[in-house]
């Protein structure tokens, strides 16, 4: 019997979309549709086990080997510096990581830049490459308020439509990196299950191209 592939899916709409793809390529698990609060689902026939986890935890489960593969946003991979293989850009949840500030204002380069963000590691690395001295202000929500209240000069955050920025008189100053959902694999799991994981990956790529 083939080894079971453990798949970590992020709770929420993205995880549901990704599961639908796995189902289309022949790795369905009917028990998932039964609802309830169960978190782990197995299909012995298909040799798969799925489990739902918090989106920010997916890469941890994969890196630690509890999951063989998983789906996670590029922002999380960058912020956590996850030691995993990035196999495929699924093209889902597209947005961008950007620097934003008060409309019409530009930071004073003579002083240490105050940066409010939920992503301190991404911000730190971005400005390190610019040799720019910064003061990180770690926040967990509504970071758009920080530059308005003059607590920070700029913010580093995910931008989708830009509507929230406009409604708060902010604008994108610099784009850091495009963000989307990625299929990742544990390095050891990939080594021992290369053929099967690659087959999954190739089939998923075909579905994603059709949906693009």
Report on this structure.
With 212 residues, this protein is of the alpha/beta class. It has two domains: 5-93 and 180-211, Periplasmic binding protein-like II (D-Maltodextrin-Binding Protein, domain 2, 3-Layer(aba) Sandwich); 95-178, Periplasmic binding protein-like II (D-Maltodextrin-Binding Protein, domain 2, 3-Layer(aba) Sandwich), CATH 3.40.190.10. It is 32% helix and 31% strand. It is built from eight helices and eleven strands. It has helices at 13-24, 58-63, 74-80, 120-128, 145-148, 163-167, 187-192, 194-211; strands at residues 5-10, 40-43, 48-53, 69-73, 85-89, 95-102, 113-117, 134-138, 154-159, 170-179, 181-185. The strands form two sheets. The chain has a six-stranded mixed sheet with strand order 2-3-1-4-11-5. The chain has a five-stranded mixed sheet with strand order 8-7-9-6-10. The chain is elongated. The protein starts with a strand and ends with a helix.
Order of helix and strand elements from N to C terminus: EHEEHEHEEEHEHEHEEHH
Report the C-alpha radius of gyration, rounded.
20 Å
The amount of beta strand, in percent, is: 25-35%
Describe the global form: elongated
* Class by alpha and beta content: alpha/beta
Strand order of the largest sheet: 2-3-1-4-11-5
Rounded mean pLDDT score: 93
Can you tell me the CATH class of the largest domain? Alpha Beta
| Second-tier CATH architecture of the largest domain | 3-Layer(aba) Sandwich
């Amino acid at each position: 019997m083939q080894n079971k592939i453990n798949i970590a899916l992020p709770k929420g709409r993205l995880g549901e979309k990704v599961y639908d793809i796995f189902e289309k390529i022949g790795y369905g698990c009917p028990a998932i549709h039964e609802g309830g609060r169960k978190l782990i689902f197995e299909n012995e026939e298909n040799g798969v086990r799925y489990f739902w986890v918090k989106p920010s935890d997916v890469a941890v489960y994969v890196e630690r080997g509890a999951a063989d593969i998983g789906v996670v946003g590029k922002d999380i991979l960058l912020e956590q510096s996850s030691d995993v293989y990035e196999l495929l850009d699924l093209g889902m949840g597209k947005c961008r990581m950007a620097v934003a500030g008060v409309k019409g204002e530009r930071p004073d380069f003579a002083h240490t830049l105050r940066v409010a963000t939920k992503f301190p590691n991404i911000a730190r690395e971005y400005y390190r490459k610019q040799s720019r001295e910064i003061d990180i202000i770690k926040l967990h929500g509504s970071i758009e308020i920080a530059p308005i209240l003059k607590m920070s000069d700029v913010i580093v955050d995910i931008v989708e439509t830009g509507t929230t920025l406009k409604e708060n008189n902010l604008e994108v100053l610099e784009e850091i990196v495009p963000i989307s959902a990625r299929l990742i694999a544990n390095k050891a799991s990939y080594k021992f299950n290369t053929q099967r994981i690659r087959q999954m990956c190739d089939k998923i790529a075909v579905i994603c191209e059709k949906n693009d």
